[in-house]
Design a protein that fits this description.
This protein has 434 residues and is an alpha/beta fold. The chain has eleven helices and 15 strands. It holds the Pfam family DegT_DnrJ_EryC1.
């Protein structure tokens, strides 16, 4: 009998099967389209979630509506979808009241619009606090605005295996700080930041906050209204499963709506889009954050993904996410640590999001070899195998099987690909989605 990190018989595959039988979410996987027969374990749902079966039905219905109603569809509900789906997302996933969230554009565009709008609300303040280990898009957007507006970026150098803590932020705030922009869950380590404490610190300094929710929306509780968050943005193709390139979302607390001024003036963000007037007059409220034509197919996919998450309930999803994370860490300690693998995520589950990062100097090639064996995690530079744990579709047995393959590759029980001097230049399958 074995007991690793509190898990009895973690090294016995039957223990994984038993946990799956006891899982209250075990039947939810039936709501998703099956993976290909060559997939042993899909551990990249934190980059690109599996599609709900209802998405295919929604798209087929859209094609029929499009054919039957043609351009009349815009007047029969399509035009309102960014706000309607935004409210559905806000209610079940974001902890936000109606009228503060829209689904539109990409995460990059939404981060840009939100950051510029936040800066416009703090004229005269010139400093923006940014995490140096944040996702590249977030840093690049801040850098572009700093260049264009003559701002000073204040870089936080957080622990790469952890993330930004309230004390890190408190140490750099002053009366010239305009905005603090951070990720709720760090894309590399999975560190879960203290949203409430950091937001409160920023507000006490007179600054605003912009949170990136890409790695938290749909997998753990988010309470934007309760935390009095100013701005937030995030994607829908990870734990919400809306598909590759699905539209992102943005949130603006209603206390800012009467002074919103975002930089990408599009006709659908106007007070009367069909007035076709000579000058832009922004719509009241959150609709002023819209720019271009709504992507209807993507919006319908977001709606179906949100419905699946809402039906399961975020608290139940979070409970399984924590259990899967602890299971992964226990197997890594038992099997992989002796083979040179280090857990590069917080060990405290209260400070860890929906993935576990494993560090190994040969991580890039290991990810390629895992993919060849039917195990699909992803690689993050310079040395991380990132194990994504999507609770609605990931089983304890899948994690067991995947890490057993990784163990066998490292131990020599499974033949490894011959070393290739050019391998460092050949990227393994690696999701572009954060």
């Amino acid at each position: 009998m074995s007991d690793v990190n509190g898990f009895r018989d973690v090294l016995d595959r039957s223990a994984a099967l038993a946990r799956d039988r006891a899982d209250p979410l075990r039947d939810r996987v039936d709501l998703f389209l099956p993976t290909g027969p060559d997939v042993v374990a899909y551990l990249d749902g934190n980059s690109l979630g599996r599609p709900a079966a209802a998405v295919a039905d929604a798209w087929a219905g859209l094609a029929r509506d499009w054919a039957g109603r043609l351009i009349r569809g815009w007047d029969e509900g399509w035009m309102e979808l960014p706000g309607t789906v935004g409210d559905e997302l806000a209610a079940s996933v974001l902890g936000a009241a109606p009228g503060q969230t829209v689904v539109a554009d990409s995460t990059t565009v939404n981060l840009y619009k939100c950051l510029r709008a936040a800066l416009n609300l703090r004229p005269g303040r010139r400093r923006v606090v940014v995490d140096r280990d944040n996702f590249p898009t977030n840093r690049y957007v801040a850098q572009s605005l700093a260049r264009d507006l003559g701002l000073e970026l204040v870089w936080l150098a957080a622990d790469p295996d952890g993330g930004v803590r309230p004390e890190d932020v408190a140490g750099v705030l002053d009366d010239d700080t305009a905005v603090v922009t951070l990720s709720h869950v760090a894309y590399r380590s999975g560190f879960l930041a203290d949203m409430e404490a950091i937001t409160d610190l920023a507000h006490r300094a007179g600054a605003l906050v912009l949170w990136d929710l890409c790695h938290s929306a749909g997998v753990l509780p988010v309470e934007l209204d309760r935390c009095e968050v100013d701005f937030a943005a995030g994607c829908t193709y990870k734990f919400l499963g809306a598909g590759p390139g699905a539209p992102a979302f943005l949130y603006v607390h209603r206390r800012h709506h009467d002074r919103l001024d975002q930089p990408i003036w599009g006709w659908l963000g106007g007070a009367d889009p069909f007035q076709m007037g000579p000058d832009h007059r922004p719509a009241p409220g959150i609709r002023s954050m819209l720019s271009g034509t709504p992507p209807i197919a993507g919006l319908l996919a977001v709606r179906e993904g949100v419905r699946v998450v809402a039906d399961a309930g975020v608290p139940a999803i979070r409970a399984k996410s924590v259990a899967l994370g602890e299971w992964t860490v226990a197997l890594a300690d038992a099997w992989l640590a002796p083979l040179g693998v280090e857990v590069a995520s917080p060990r405290d589950p209260a400070r860890r999001g929906g993935h576990v990062s494993l560090r190994h100097p040969d991580a890039r090639r290991l990810c390629a070899e895992l993919a060849a064996a039917g195990v699909l995690p992803d690689f993050r530079t310079p040395d991380v195998v990132r194990v994504g744990l999507a609770p609605l579709t990931t089983s304890f047995t899948a994690v067991w099987d995947a890490l057993a393959v990784l163990r066998d590759l490292l131990s020599g029980a499974r033949p490894r690909a011959a070393a290739d001097p050019t391998a460092a230049d050949e990227a393994p399958p690696m999701a572009p989605n954060g």
